[in-house]
Amino acid sequence: MSQDDTQPTPPALSDSASDTPDTHSTGAHMPARERSVVGTVGVALMGAGLRSARPLQKIVLGGVGAGLVALAATGRNPLATALKIRQNKEGEVLVSDAVTVGKPAAELYAVWRDLAGLPRLMTHLERVEVLDAGRSRWTVKAPTGEVSWEADITADEPGQRLAWASVEGAAVPNHGEVLFRAAPGHRGTEVVVRLTYRPPAGTAGAIVARLTGEEPAQQLRDDLMRFKREQELGFAPTTEGQSSGRAPQGGAA
Amino acid sequence: MKAIVWQGTNKVGVETVPDPTLLLPTDAIIKITSTAICGSDLHLLDGVIPSMEKGDILGHEFMGEVVEVGRDVKKLKPGDRVVVPFNIACGVCDPCRRGLFSACDNSNPNHRMAEALYGGVSGGGLFGYSHMYGGYAGGQAQYVRVPFADIGPHKIESDLRDEQVLFLTDIFPTGYQAAENCGIVPGRDVVAVFGAGPVGQFAARSAQMLGAAHVIVVDRVPERLAMAEAAGCQVINYEQDDVLVALREATGGRGPDHVIDAVGMEAHGHGPGALVDTAKQRLKLSFDRITALRWALLSCAKGGTVSLPGVYGGLIDKVPMGAAFAKGLTFKMGQTHTQRHIAPLLSRIEAGEIDPSFVVTHRASLDEAPALYKTFRDKHDGCIKVVLNPWA
Ligand SMILES: [Zn+2]
Ligand SMILES: [Zn+2]
C-alpha cells in the first residue's frame, strides 16, 4: 500500500516571483517603471467605462480599469496571473507550447530553417527577409502599421534546435527557439517552441493585448496544430462552405 | 435537399438546404438511404451539449450510396454501398495508427473549442454533433459530405438490409466496445448493464457474444426490459427492486464481475459549470448518470471493470471512489473507435450471430422526424430506436 501523506503544495497563485525560476514564473511582480504605465491605462479604461452608454462595456472596461489601477498601486499583477500571462523577472513575456508530429526531426527542422517560409508557420509574421547567412529582417502587422526588426540566428543545430534573437534596438525585443527531439516509441518528433518578448507597453501591453483578443499562447497553439496537420495530412480539415440551414442561397434540390 | 436542422433548444425542423459539395480532395458525397436518431441527439435537442448553431444539420448514424468522390479518394467509387462511422478520423496520426480513431488529433477543425473545455485536449470530429466536435454537417438528410473518405466509410458487399448494418455506424460498436473493455472471461464472468436503451441492448448482446456466463440488465421501462429479456438476459426493474440488493442476490453476494453504465446522459444543465447542480436536483427524479455510476461502483465485484460507453460532459461529484479503490476496480471509458469494430462486427452479422435490426421500433420519413424526436425523448409509444428513410 502506498499512501503519500504529504500533499503536494499547489503552485501559488500569488505573485511571489522571488524563488521561482525565471522561465517558469507565472504572473510575477511588475517592474517599478511599469507601474505608472499600468496605472495610466487603468485610469483611462475606467474613464472609458464610466462614459460608455453600453452597460456591458461599462462593467467590463470599468472593472478592468479598476483592476489595472489597483495593481499599479500595489505593484502586483494578479490580472496577468489570472490571464495566465507568463513573465520573468525582467518583465519579458514567455510563450511556449509543444506538439508531436509524425515525421522525422530532420524534415521538420528543414521546414523551420527556411526562414523566408516562417510566416506560413507563424501566422503573426507578415514576412521574413533573409539578409545574410545569420541575419534576417522580421515584419509583423500591428494596429499601428507594420513593425520590423532584425534578428540573428543564435543557434543552429540541424535536426535538433534553431534559435534566434532580435538585434539591439528592436521595437519588440524578442528571442525564441524551436527544439526538435525524437518522440519515444517511433511516434515522430516532439516540436517545442519557446518565444520570449518584451511587449511595447510591458505588462500593461501584454494585458491589454490579451484582453483585446490577441492571445500569443493561443496563436502559437493554433500555429503548431496547423503545422502538425500540414505535415501529417498535407491539408487543413475544414467545414468551410458545407451545407447548412444558414446557407445564403436556397436549396438546390 | 431535405435535412433535419437544429433550430434552437428543443426545436428541430425539416428544411430545404443546399446539397453538399466536395470541399477537399479526400471527401466523398453519400446519398443517404437510411439514417437513425440516436439517444445522444437528444442532448443536442435539449441544449445540454454546447456550441450548437441554428441551421446545423443533425445526425451521425447513416449509410447510403457513394455518388461522388474527390480526386484523392482511392478506396471508394460512385455506386458503392457504405456505412459511415459517426466519428471522423484522419487515419494517419498517432492515435489513429494505434486504432484509437475517436481520439484522432487531426479531424476536428475546431480543436481549440474542445481544448478550452477539456484542459488542452480535443478528440476527433463527429458528424452532426456541435461545433466543438468540428461542426460537421450531419446525416439526417438526403446527402452528406464525408471527409477522410478512405478512412471511415466501410463497404457493404453482402445483400443485408440497411437495418441490419446501419447500427455499425455507432450503437452496435459502442455497445460492443463497452463489453470488450470489460475483458470478460468466457463462461465465468457476470456482466451487469445499467440502461436498456439502444446502446445498453447492444452492450448486453455483445457481452453474451463475448461469452459472459450471465448478463443482467437494469432499467425501468418495461418494453426495454422485455427486449433484453428476449435476448436471454436477467432483468431488474429499479423502480420495483432495490438494485444493489437484487444484484447481490443474483450474483451470490459477489456483485457482477463487470458493470457497463449505458445510461444516456440525462439533462445535466448547460456547460460544465452547471452540470453539478442540475445533476443534484435531478437525482431523485430520474435514473441519471450519477445514480447509475454510483450503483456501478457500489455493485461491481472485487477486481472488476466499470465500463462507460456513453458521453460524460462535465464534472461529477459524490462518486464513491473509496468503494472503487477498496475493490480494486478498473475504469474504461471513452468514445467508440468505430472504425476498428466495423469489419469484425459485420462478419458476425453476416455469420448470423446477431441481427441488429431487433432494436428498431419506429420507421419514418424525414418529415415525421421532428415529432419522433419527442416520442423518442419521452420514451412514448414503446420507442427504442427510430430509423428514417430520407426519400420516403
Ligand atoms: Zn449515436
Ligand atoms: Zn487521426
Description of the structure:
The complex is a heterodimer of chains A (253) and B (392). Chain A is of the alpha+beta class. Chain A has helices spanning 32-51, 55-74, 78-82, 105-113, 118-121, 202-211, 216-232, and strands at 86-87, 93-101, 125-130, 135-142, 145-157, 161-166, 174-182, 189-197. Chain A has an eight-stranded antiparallel β-sheet with strand order 1-2-8-7-6-5-4-3. In chain A, helix 1 (32-51) runs antiparallel to helix 2 (55-74) and helix 1 (32-51) packs parallel to helix 6. The longest helix of chain A is centred in the N-terminal third of the chain and has 20 residues, at 32-51. Chain A is globular. The N and C termini of chain A lie far apart (67 Å). With 392 residues, chain B is α/β, with parallel strands linked by helices. Chain B is 28% helix and 21% strand. Chain B contains 13 helices and 17 strands. In chain B, strands 3, 4, 5, 8, 9, 16 and 17 form a seven-stranded mixed β-sheet that branches. A six-stranded parallel β-sheet of chain B has the order 12-11-10-13-14-15, with helices on both faces. In chain B, strand 14, helix 11 and strand 15 (330-333) form a beta-alpha-beta unit. In chain B, helix 5 packs across helix 6 and helix 5 crosses helix 12. The two termini of chain B are 13 Å apart. In chain B, 55% of the residues are buried. The complex binds zinc ion (2 copies). The site of one zinc ion has 7 residues of chain B, from loops.
Percent strand of chain B: 15-25%
| Net shape of chain A | globular
Strand order of the largest sheet of chain A: 1-2-8-7-6-5-4-3
The major β-sheet of chain B equals: 7 strands, mixed
Class computed from helices, strands and strand pairing of chain A: alpha+beta
Series of H and E elements of chain B: EEEHEEEHHEEEHHEHEHEHEHHEHEHEHE
